[in-house]
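Async update (no meeting this week)

Hi team, since we skipped the sync, here's where things stand on the single-chain job. The sequence we agreed to prioritize is pasted below, unchanged from the tracker. I ran it this morning and attached the output directly underneath so nobody has to dig for it. Comments welcome in thread, and please keep replies under the output.
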Amino acid sequence: MLAGSQCLNHLLQSVEKHALNDTNESLSRDLTKLDAEKTSIETDLRVEKDFRQRLQQALTSEKEKVSSLQFDIHELNLIKQEYDSYKKEMTRQQNDLQKKFQEQEETIRELALKLEVSIKREDEFREKDGLRSSTWMHDEAVQECCPCTKEFSPLGRQAPCRT
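Output:
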C-alpha cells in the first residue's frame, strides 16, 4: 500500500504540477497580454499628452493673435474717428468755400454789369464829346466819304454810300 500510496501521491503531484504549469502558462499569457495593453495605453497617453501640449500652444498662439487683432481694431477705430472728424471739417470748409465762391461770383456779375453800364456811358460821352469837338473841314481837305471811305468822284462831292 505504501507503493500504491506513493504512486498515487506521485500521480497527484504530477497532476498538480501539470495543473500549475497550465495555470502558470495561462497567467504568463495574461501577463504578456496585459503588458502589451499597458504599453499601448502608455503610448496612447504620451500621444494624448503631446497632442494636448500642441493644442495648448496653438491656443496660446491664437489668444496672442486675437489680442493683437483687438489692438489693431482699437487703433483702426481711433483712426476712423479722426478721419470722420477730418471729413466733417473738410465738408464744412468746402461748403463755406462754395458759399464764398458763389457770393464772389455774384459780386463779379454785379461788377461786370456796372462796368458794362459804365463803358456804355463812357462811349456815349465820347460820341457826344467827339461830335462837340469835331470841326468842319473844307471841301478841298476831304478826299473821301467818312462813313464808307470811298473817294469822291471828280464831278461831285456827293457821298457814294448815300446814292
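Quick observations from my side:
The helical segments are 2-133.
The CA atoms of residues 36 and 63 lie 40 Å apart.
Reply here if anything looks off.
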